[in-house]
Design a protein that fits this description.
Length: about 240
């Protein structure tokens, strides 16, 4: 297994669609592509959508195939996972796909104000313990980070099998007066015919086979200066 990982890391270093910033390039400084993703990386002016914790890139690639008029960046710290999606994109000549290997904590060093139009968060760690609420990717702490690079009224999508994370995100939206565009706690029983929501990752398919319902919420960030935790999560 370790040998395969090393081989993938070496191969990925040659991929033109993978960006792997070094720590000293993003720690307390702006990365060279910040504010320049359209001009330098994609070489077009199409909207940029990012997927946080993209894993093997199944959702990033799936969206890019369905919506060629947008650019997509899958972001994850696990290089062995990114390798699969990046290789698929290269082999299938998907020019509107990129992958970024770095920690989410450095995201404001990488994207400039208004550079991103949408954020997808697909099946993240729900951080179920109450004292871990701030680690959830839809927490006020992370929303504050996203606001710095998300376009005004930019959209955030969450798909999860976790009831706690879904309910928590709904509460965050309600408490902070964030406009919810759509939400459901049982996505695939609605009978929707929607390319945007029909993509299933490997793990999503496993959850469904195990009998889990898939939850989805789509909401917009507003002009709040500060986002607050719901009362039940404070402390």
């Amino acid at each position: 297994m370790a040998k395969h990982k090393l081989q993938r890391f070496a191969q990925m270093a040659t991929f033109e669609n993978v960006i792997q910033p070094k720590l000293d390039e993003v720690l307390n400084k702006d990365y060279k592509l910040k504010g320049n993703w359209n001009r330098i990386f994609f070489k077009n002016n199409n909207p940029i959508v990012i997927e946080l914790g993209c894993g093997k890139g199944e959702y990033t690639v799936g969206l890019a195939k369905r919506f060629p008029g947008k650019n997509y960046i899958g972001m994850d710290i696990k290089g062995a996972r990114i390798w699969k999606g990046a290789l698929y994109a290269l082999q299938n000549n998907l020019k509107n796909v990129g992958f970024l290997r770095t920690r989410i904590e450095y995201i404001n060093s990488i994207f400039g104000p208004g550079e991103i139009s949408e954020i997808w968060i697909t099946f993240p760690d729900p951080q179920e313990k109450r004292n871990r609420a701030k680690k959830r990717l839809t927490s006020p702490q992370f929303l504050t980070l996203y606001k710095k690079f998300l376009q005004p009224a930019g959209t955030i999508h969450l798909k999860t099998d976790n009831e706690l994370l879904y309910n928590y995100t709904c509460q965050v939206c309600s408490h902070n007066n964030l406009a919810i565009k759509f939400h459901t706690n049982d996505l695939y029983n609605l009978g929707l015919d929607d390319d945007l929501l029909s993509i299933k990752t490997f793990y999503e398919s496993q959850f469904i086979m195990q009998g889990s319902s898939i939850k989805y919420i789509c909401f917009e960030l507003n002009a709040n200066e500060i986002f607050e935790e719901p009362p039940d999560e404070e402390g």
